[in-house]
UniProtKB/TrEMBL annotation:
The lineage of its organism: Bacteria, Bacillati, Bacillota, Tissierellia, Tissierellales. The keyword Transferase applies. This is L,D-TPase catalytic domain-containing protein. Pathway: Cell wall biogenesis; peptidoglycan biosynthesis. One of its GO terms (molecular function) is peptidoglycan L,D-transpeptidase activity. Pfam families: YkuD. The active site is at 208 (proton donor/acceptor), 229 (nucleophile). One of its GO terms (cellular component) is extracellular region. GO terms for biological process: cell wall organization; peptidoglycan-protein cross-linking; regulation of cell shape. Residues 133-253 form the L,D-TPase catalytic domain. The keyword Oxidoreductase does not apply.
């Protein structure tokens, strides 16, 4: 009987607080039944947070809000919408750590706003997690643009990876994950010195200056393209480098094959 009244009082108290997950322009609110359902009786028949139920809830919001390797409809410069899949940019929930955090919040029974714990983070958390500061690369047009706070910083022709030799630059929503100066880039049969190096995926591709080239754009990339990197005019790289930042989205697509409108 004692445990019955304990659980009854517990349920009454559980209706007095709520837990809100903040996703910038969206929220997930746990309250009333949705919150109470995350508790179960323990071996003493007392209501406590149910770790398995909490983990399932965390997996649910991860599936709903995570954007790592997601497919995005991207508004291109001068064209329509490109559908861009994959890449290393985006948000990935740390399920175990987020489960632990929610269990603690359920034990505290206080109204609180929290965020998931992430293994990987993007630049913005809104529905449009790319935001208005990004680098855009169209392999079809062999052209690159940089935008910062919605304003165009630069645009330039480029030379991307050579598809005729199996070296196509990977498409996807990538990110600047490092910025380095005075680097020697090496492959199995080659090496090149660059003044600026900004890797954007995990296969070795990135943005760098290319003093060995005098012309860019057009169809140069076919038969005389790079090993996968985006060769950029040396006069452009200082501006690109200084205006970029860690985790800046790099959207790479091919307007010849990926336009949907």
């Amino acid at each position: 009987m004692k445990n019955y009244f304990h659980n009854l009082n517990k349920k009454i108290n559980l209706n007095k607080f709520e837990i809100t997950y903040d996703f910038a322009d969206r929220k997930e609110v746990l309250k009333n039944d949705s919150l109470i359902n995350l508790y179960s009786p323990n071996e003493k028949n007392l209501l406590v947070p149910d770790v398995e139920k909490v983990e399932q809830y965390i997996k649910y919001i991860a599936g709903k809000y995570d954007t790592f390797k997601a497919t995005r409809d991207f508004q291109t410069t001068g064209l329509g919408i490109a559908r861009v899949s994959g890449g290393i940019y985006g948000w990935m929930t740390d399920v175990k750590s987020s489960t632990d955090e929610l269990v603690k919040a359920l034990e505290n029974t206080k109204t609180v706003t929290i965020k998931p714990v992430y293994r990987l983070e993007g630049y913005r958390r809104e529905t449009n997690d790319i935001g208005n500061s990004y680098i855009e690369i169209d392999l079809g047009r062999q052209h690159m643009w940089m935008y910062k706070d919605g304003q165009k910083v630069l645009e330039t022709p480029i030379v991307s990876g050579d598809p005729t030799k199996g070296n196509s630059t990977p498409t996807g929503t990538q990110k600047v994950w490092a910025k380095e100066r005075d680097r020697i880039l090496k492959g199995a049969t080659w090496e090149s010195h660059v003044d600026y190096w900004m890797p954007f995926d995990w296969t070795g591709c990135g943005l760098h200056d290319s003093v060995w080239r005098s012309t860019y754009g057009g169809s140069i990339y076919r038969h005389n393209g790079s090993h996968g990197c985006v060769n950029t005019p040396p006069s452009i790289m200082p501006t690109l480098f200084s205006n970029s930042f860690y985790n800046m989205p790099v959207v790479v697509y091919d307007s010849n094959t990926q336009m949907v409108s």
